[in-house]
Amino acid sequence: MSGGLYGLTTNRTYQRAGFGAAVRRGSRPAIVVVDLTRGFTEDSYPSGADLSEAVAATTRLIEAARPADVPVIFTAIAYTEAEASGDAIAWLRKAPGMRTLVEGSDAVAIDPRLPMRPGHDQLVVKKGASAFFGTSLAATLTGLGRDTVVVCGATTSGCVRATVVDAVQSGFPVLVPRACVGDRAEGPADAALFDIQAKYGDVVTLEDAVGYIGSVPAPAAPDAARRSHRRGDST
């Protein structure tokens, strides 16, 4: 009998503490795609790994979201030349491999395999791990009337986990499709997903996420009066 990632004793301890309850799923979700930029999805970059499987799974989820007009918000870490080469950002002293993520470079471009629609899908540029810290993401989600966040992206143990924590602290129930997130190493990724499932959101299958997104009602067509008003018709 399997004891899970950390064994039966850990599982029982977490159950006794009351962790792991399912989140409430709303009817107006948004998809947040965290840092699936070339600097993270391609192993030719110091900060990257081959995340082709996560990119393909996220693509499928995005395509399922389009008929219902579910918002898809992309994020990217990008530093100015001065930030990348200087000491103003403490994180870069800890993780100097990310100094290659410079504004305007190929490293910060959204992976071209993703079906991003420029001019339609929003892009949030950030300097830290969480997509919420120092950005307008929470206000954007609120302004769009969203009540649930589906988080995809990279890396599972870093920016994805940080984004999930801040999402739930901002009042949004969170789903994380396991197939839609990726990392450089399996161990840290598994630990992060264990932690997310226990405390912050639901880690779900891609099929579950696609089914949930696909169940969102398509936008209602404008009524005749509104169409007439836009045309400038008179009665």
Automatic annotation (TrEMBL):
GO molecular function, one term: hydrolase activity
Pfam families xref list: Isochorismatase
Keywords: Hydrolase
Isochorismatase-like domain boundaries: 30-208
Xref: InterPro entries: Isochorismatase-like_dom (IPR000868), Isochorismatase-like_hydrls (IPR050272), Isochorismatase-like_sf (IPR036380)
Keyword Hydrolase listed: yes
PANTHER family xrefs: ISOCHORISMATASE HYDROLASE, PEROXYUREIDOACRYLATE/UREIDOACRYLATE AMIDOHYDROLASE-RELATED
Protein name as annotated: Isochorismatase hydrolase
Species the sequence originates in: Streptomyces iranensis
Taxonomic classification: Bacteria, Bacillati, Actinomycetota, Actinomycetes, Kitasatosporales
